[in-house]
Amino acid sequence: MSSAECPFCQILVGEDPAARVVYEDEHTLAIFPLNPATRGHTLVVPRRHVADVWGLTQEEGEHLARTTQVVAHAVHDALAPDGLNLIQSNGEVATQTVGHVHVHVVPRYRGDRLRLRWPKHAAEQGADADRTLFSIQSHLVPQTAPAAQQPKNPDSVSGEDRRQHLEFIQSVITRMSQASATAKTWLLPIVTAAYGYALIEKDLWVALLGLLAVITFGLLDANYLKQEKAFRRLYDIVSSGASIPHFSMDPTLAAPAGTKPNYWPDWAELRSWAIAPVYLPLLIAGLAITVRSLLG
Protein backbone atom coordinates (compact mmCIF):
# COMPACT_ATOMS: atom_id res chain seq x y z
CA MET A 1 0.00 0.00 0.00
CA SER A 2 1.41 3.39 -1.04
CA SER A 3 0.99 6.55 1.00
CA ALA A 4 -1.44 7.87 -1.63
CA GLU A 5 -3.72 4.85 -1.09
CA CYS A 6 -3.32 4.80 2.70
CA PRO A 7 -6.43 5.99 4.59
CA PHE A 8 -4.30 7.11 7.53
CA CYS A 9 -2.06 9.21 5.28
CA GLN A 10 -5.17 10.79 3.72
CA ILE A 11 -6.27 11.86 7.19
CA LEU A 12 -2.76 13.16 7.95
CA VAL A 13 -2.79 15.46 4.89
CA GLY A 14 -6.34 16.64 5.57
CA GLU A 15 -8.11 14.75 2.76
CA ASP A 16 -10.66 13.17 5.09
CA PRO A 17 -12.51 15.95 6.93
CA ALA A 18 -14.89 13.44 8.51
CA ALA A 19 -12.09 11.82 10.49
CA ARG A 20 -12.37 12.11 14.26
CA VAL A 21 -8.95 13.17 15.49
CA VAL A 22 -8.37 12.45 19.18
CA TYR A 23 -4.82 13.76 19.46
CA GLU A 24 -1.96 14.89 17.24
CA ASP A 25 1.55 16.25 17.52
CA GLU A 26 4.48 16.62 15.13
CA HIS A 27 5.25 12.90 15.24
CA THR A 28 1.96 11.03 15.71
CA LEU A 29 -1.79 11.11 15.24
CA ALA A 30 -4.59 9.43 17.23
CA ILE A 31 -8.00 8.89 15.60
CA PHE A 32 -11.21 6.96 16.00
CA PRO A 33 -11.54 4.05 13.53
CA LEU A 34 -14.54 3.89 11.20
CA ASN A 35 -15.88 0.84 13.01
CA PRO A 36 -14.76 0.98 16.65
CA ALA A 37 -14.80 -2.35 18.47
CA THR A 38 -15.72 -0.72 21.79
CA ARG A 39 -16.59 2.74 23.07
CA GLY A 40 -13.44 4.87 22.98
CA HIS A 41 -11.50 2.56 20.62
CA THR A 42 -8.63 4.70 19.27
CA LEU A 43 -5.86 4.21 16.72
CA VAL A 44 -2.40 5.73 17.18
CA VAL A 45 -0.27 6.11 14.02
CA PRO A 46 3.10 7.67 13.15
CA ARG A 47 3.01 10.55 10.67
CA ARG A 48 5.53 8.93 8.31
CA HIS A 49 4.05 6.21 6.12
CA VAL A 50 5.68 2.99 7.27
CA ALA A 51 4.14 -0.42 6.72
CA ASP A 52 5.02 -2.26 9.93
CA VAL A 53 6.86 -2.08 13.22
CA TRP A 54 10.14 -3.28 11.65
CA GLY A 55 10.21 -0.17 9.47
CA LEU A 56 10.05 2.26 12.37
CA THR A 57 13.14 4.12 13.47
CA GLN A 58 13.98 4.00 17.15
CA GLU A 59 12.86 7.60 17.56
CA GLU A 60 9.55 6.93 15.79
CA GLY A 61 8.97 3.92 18.00
CA GLU A 62 9.56 6.01 21.11
CA HIS A 63 7.11 8.70 19.95
CA LEU A 64 4.51 6.07 19.05
CA ALA A 65 4.83 4.45 22.48
CA ARG A 66 4.59 7.81 24.24
CA THR A 67 1.43 8.85 22.39
CA THR A 68 -0.10 5.42 22.99
CA GLN A 69 0.47 5.86 26.71
CA VAL A 70 -0.97 9.41 26.65
CA VAL A 71 -4.11 8.21 24.85
CA ALA A 72 -4.48 5.19 27.15
CA HIS A 73 -4.42 7.47 30.19
CA ALA A 74 -6.97 9.83 28.62
CA VAL A 75 -9.31 6.95 27.74
CA HIS A 76 -8.99 5.55 31.25
CA ASP A 77 -9.73 8.88 32.92
CA ALA A 78 -12.59 9.81 30.59
CA LEU A 79 -14.43 6.50 30.23
CA ALA A 80 -13.36 4.44 33.29
CA PRO A 81 -13.30 1.14 31.36
CA ASP A 82 -12.99 -2.20 33.18
CA GLY A 83 -9.78 -2.92 31.31
CA LEU A 84 -7.83 -2.05 28.17
CA ASN A 85 -6.07 -3.84 25.31
CA LEU A 86 -3.13 -2.45 23.36
CA ILE A 87 -3.05 -4.31 20.04
CA GLN A 88 -0.40 -3.87 17.37
CA SER A 89 -0.50 -6.19 14.34
CA ASN A 90 2.02 -6.71 11.54
CA GLY A 91 1.24 -8.67 8.41
CA GLU A 92 -1.90 -10.25 7.05
CA VAL A 93 -1.44 -13.43 9.11
CA ALA A 94 -1.46 -11.22 12.22
CA THR A 95 -4.75 -9.55 11.10
CA GLN A 96 -3.18 -6.29 9.87
CA THR A 97 -5.60 -4.78 7.31
CA VAL A 98 -4.08 -1.32 6.74
CA GLY A 99 -0.49 -1.14 5.55
CA HIS A 100 0.46 1.71 7.86
CA VAL A 101 1.74 0.77 11.31
CA HIS A 102 -0.80 1.56 14.02
CA VAL A 103 -1.64 0.72 17.61
CA HIS A 104 -5.17 -0.06 18.76
CA VAL A 105 -6.06 1.37 22.14
CA VAL A 106 -9.17 -0.66 23.00
CA PRO A 107 -11.08 0.08 26.22
CA ARG A 108 -12.71 -3.09 27.55
CA TYR A 109 -16.05 -3.39 29.32
CA ARG A 110 -17.60 -6.43 30.92
CA GLY A 111 -19.90 -8.05 28.39
CA ASP A 112 -18.52 -6.13 25.37
CA ARG A 113 -18.53 -7.71 21.91
CA LEU A 114 -14.79 -8.16 21.50
CA ARG A 115 -13.35 -11.65 22.01
CA LEU A 116 -9.61 -12.25 22.22
CA ARG A 117 -8.72 -15.88 22.92
CA TRP A 118 -5.34 -17.51 23.45
CA PRO A 119 -4.79 -21.19 22.61
CA LYS A 120 -5.00 -23.56 25.57
CA HIS A 121 -1.84 -25.49 24.73
CA ALA A 122 1.71 -24.16 24.63
CA ALA A 123 3.33 -23.73 21.22
CA GLU A 124 6.58 -25.15 22.58
CA GLN A 125 8.12 -26.20 25.88
CA GLY A 126 11.29 -27.60 27.36
CA ALA A 127 14.35 -27.73 25.14
CA ASP A 128 12.52 -26.16 22.18
CA ALA A 129 11.58 -23.13 24.30
CA ASP A 130 15.18 -22.86 25.55
CA ARG A 131 16.51 -22.82 21.98
CA THR A 132 14.00 -20.11 21.03
CA LEU A 133 14.96 -18.10 24.12
CA PHE A 134 18.66 -18.15 23.28
CA SER A 135 18.00 -17.37 19.61
CA ILE A 136 15.98 -14.27 20.52
CA GLN A 137 18.47 -13.16 23.16
CA SER A 138 21.31 -13.41 20.66
CA HIS A 139 19.55 -10.87 18.41
CA LEU A 140 18.15 -8.64 21.14
CA VAL A 141 20.90 -6.06 21.70
CA PRO A 142 21.74 -3.74 18.77
CA GLN A 143 25.15 -4.30 17.23
CA THR A 144 26.14 -0.74 18.17
CA ALA A 145 25.79 -1.45 21.90
CA PRO A 146 28.95 -1.78 24.03
CA ALA A 147 30.51 -5.21 23.89
CA ALA A 148 29.82 -5.74 27.60
CA GLN A 149 26.09 -5.47 26.88
CA GLN A 150 26.08 -7.84 23.92
CA PRO A 151 24.47 -11.23 24.63
CA LYS A 152 27.00 -14.00 24.56
CA ASN A 153 26.90 -16.75 22.01
CA PRO A 154 28.87 -19.99 21.83
CA ASP A 155 31.42 -18.52 19.43
CA SER A 156 32.29 -15.75 21.90
CA VAL A 157 32.81 -18.13 24.83
CA SER A 158 36.40 -18.24 25.97
CA GLY A 159 38.30 -21.47 25.58
CA GLU A 160 38.62 -21.75 29.36
CA ASP A 161 34.86 -21.39 29.88
CA ARG A 162 34.13 -24.05 27.29
CA ARG A 163 36.72 -26.39 28.79
CA GLN A 164 35.16 -25.94 32.25
CA HIS A 165 31.67 -26.59 30.85
CA LEU A 166 32.90 -29.78 29.17
CA GLU A 167 34.51 -30.90 32.43
CA PHE A 168 31.18 -30.49 34.24
CA ILE A 169 29.43 -32.60 31.60
CA GLN A 170 32.20 -35.21 31.63
CA SER A 171 31.90 -35.54 35.41
CA VAL A 172 28.21 -36.47 34.99
CA ILE A 173 29.07 -38.98 32.26
CA THR A 174 31.64 -40.55 34.58
CA ARG A 175 29.13 -40.74 37.44
CA MET A 176 26.58 -42.46 35.19
CA SER A 177 29.19 -45.01 34.12
CA GLN A 178 30.22 -45.64 37.71
CA ALA A 179 26.59 -45.98 38.79
CA SER A 180 26.05 -48.58 36.07
CA ALA A 181 29.03 -50.61 37.29
CA THR A 182 27.80 -50.31 40.90
CA ALA A 183 24.34 -51.59 39.92
CA LYS A 184 25.87 -54.73 38.40
CA THR A 185 28.14 -55.19 41.42
CA TRP A 186 25.19 -55.08 43.84
CA LEU A 187 22.96 -57.27 41.69
CA LEU A 188 25.21 -60.30 41.37
CA PRO A 189 25.37 -61.29 45.10
CA ILE A 190 21.65 -60.58 45.54
CA VAL A 191 20.67 -62.74 42.57
CA THR A 192 23.15 -65.48 43.45
CA ALA A 193 21.77 -65.75 46.98
CA ALA A 194 18.11 -65.59 45.89
CA TYR A 195 18.43 -68.02 43.00
CA GLY A 196 20.60 -70.42 45.02
CA TYR A 197 18.16 -70.53 47.92
CA ALA A 198 15.16 -70.87 45.60
CA LEU A 199 16.85 -73.67 43.66
CA ILE A 200 17.75 -75.66 46.74
CA GLU A 201 14.57 -75.05 48.74
CA LYS A 202 12.25 -74.78 45.74
CA ASP A 203 10.91 -71.54 47.23
CA LEU A 204 8.70 -69.73 44.69
CA TRP A 205 8.66 -66.39 46.53
CA VAL A 206 12.41 -66.15 46.81
CA ALA A 207 12.70 -66.99 43.11
CA LEU A 208 10.25 -64.19 42.31
CA LEU A 209 12.25 -61.88 44.57
CA GLY A 210 15.36 -62.67 42.53
CA LEU A 211 13.46 -61.99 39.29
CA LEU A 212 12.22 -58.66 40.67
CA ALA A 213 15.78 -57.68 41.55
CA VAL A 214 16.97 -58.47 38.01
CA ILE A 215 14.17 -56.41 36.42
CA THR A 216 14.64 -53.48 38.82
CA PHE A 217 18.41 -53.30 38.48
CA GLY A 218 18.13 -53.86 34.72
CA LEU A 219 15.80 -50.88 34.27
CA LEU A 220 17.96 -48.77 36.58
CA ASP A 221 21.12 -49.69 34.69
CA ALA A 222 19.45 -49.01 31.32
CA ASN A 223 18.39 -45.59 32.55
CA TYR A 224 21.96 -44.85 33.64
CA LEU A 225 23.04 -45.75 30.11
CA LYS A 226 20.33 -43.53 28.62
CA GLN A 227 21.44 -40.56 30.73
CA GLU A 228 25.07 -41.19 29.85
CA LYS A 229 24.24 -41.13 26.14
CA ALA A 230 22.20 -37.93 26.57
CA PHE A 231 25.09 -36.16 28.30
CA ARG A 232 27.50 -37.43 25.65
CA ARG A 233 25.31 -35.73 23.04
CA LEU A 234 25.38 -32.56 25.14
CA TYR A 235 29.16 -32.85 25.34
CA ASP A 236 29.41 -33.10 21.55
CA ILE A 237 27.09 -30.11 21.05
CA VAL A 238 29.01 -27.90 23.50
CA SER A 239 32.38 -28.90 22.05
CA SER A 240 31.14 -28.02 18.56
CA GLY A 241 30.18 -24.48 19.70
CA ALA A 242 26.46 -24.82 18.94
CA SER A 243 23.75 -22.64 20.53
CA ILE A 244 23.60 -23.95 24.09
CA PRO A 245 23.11 -21.61 27.09
CA HIS A 246 26.37 -21.18 28.96
CA PHE A 247 27.15 -23.90 31.51
CA SER A 248 23.76 -25.55 30.98
CA MET A 249 23.55 -29.10 32.31
CA ASP A 250 20.20 -29.89 30.67
CA PRO A 251 20.79 -32.82 28.28
CA THR A 252 17.42 -32.25 26.56
CA LEU A 253 19.00 -29.20 24.88
CA ALA A 254 20.99 -31.63 22.74
CA ALA A 255 17.95 -33.75 21.86
CA PRO A 256 16.38 -33.49 18.39
CA ALA A 257 13.73 -30.76 18.06
CA GLY A 258 10.28 -31.94 19.09
CA THR A 259 11.58 -34.75 21.33
CA LYS A 260 9.47 -35.11 24.44
CA PRO A 261 11.10 -35.82 27.82
CA ASN A 262 11.09 -39.56 28.55
CA TYR A 263 12.62 -40.87 31.75
CA TRP A 264 12.15 -44.57 30.94
CA PRO A 265 14.89 -46.43 29.06
CA ASP A 266 14.19 -47.02 25.40
CA TRP A 267 14.51 -50.23 23.43
CA ALA A 268 17.91 -49.09 22.17
CA GLU A 269 19.28 -49.09 25.73
CA LEU A 270 17.60 -52.37 26.75
CA ARG A 271 19.13 -54.30 23.85
CA SER A 272 22.54 -52.66 24.07
CA TRP A 273 25.68 -54.67 24.78
CA ALA A 274 25.93 -53.10 28.23
CA ILE A 275 22.47 -54.35 29.29
CA ALA A 276 21.07 -57.33 27.36
CA PRO A 277 24.08 -59.73 27.66
CA VAL A 278 24.18 -59.14 31.42
CA TYR A 279 20.52 -59.11 32.44
CA LEU A 280 18.88 -61.34 29.83
CA PRO A 281 20.66 -64.56 30.97
CA LEU A 282 19.85 -63.73 34.60
CA LEU A 283 16.24 -63.12 33.64
CA ILE A 284 16.01 -66.46 31.77
CA ALA A 285 17.64 -68.30 34.66
CA GLY A 286 15.23 -66.69 37.10
CA LEU A 287 12.24 -67.70 34.99
CA ALA A 288 13.50 -71.29 34.84
CA ILE A 289 14.02 -71.44 38.61
CA THR A 290 10.59 -69.89 39.18
CA VAL A 291 8.92 -72.49 36.96
CA ARG A 292 10.82 -75.29 38.71
CA SER A 293 9.82 -73.92 42.13
CA LEU A 294 6.21 -73.59 40.97
CA LEU A 295 6.09 -77.18 39.77
CA GLY A 296 7.61 -78.33 43.03
Helix/strand layout:
Layout: H1 7-12, E1 21-24, E2 28-31, E3 42-46, H2 58-79, E4 83-87, E5 103-108, H3 126-138, H4 159-201, H5 204-240, H6 267-270, H7 276-295
Antiparallel strand pairs: 1-2, 2-3, 3-5, 4-5
Keywords for this entry:
alpha+beta, 49% helix, five-stranded antiparallel sheet, 7 helices, 296 residues
Strand arrangement, largest sheet?
A: 1-2-3-5-4
What is the strand content? 5-15%
The main β sheet shows up as: 5 strands, antiparallel
What series of H and E elements makes up the topology?
A: HEEEHEEHHHHH
Radius of gyration: 33 Å
Total helical elements: 7
Structural class: alpha+beta
- Unreliable stretches covering 5 or more consecutive residues: 143-155
Q: Helical residue percent?
A: 40-55%
Write down the overall geometry: elongated
Instruction: Please state the average pLDDT score.
Output: 86
Q: Give me the count of strands.
A: 5
Please give the alpha-carbon distance between the first and last residues: 90 Å
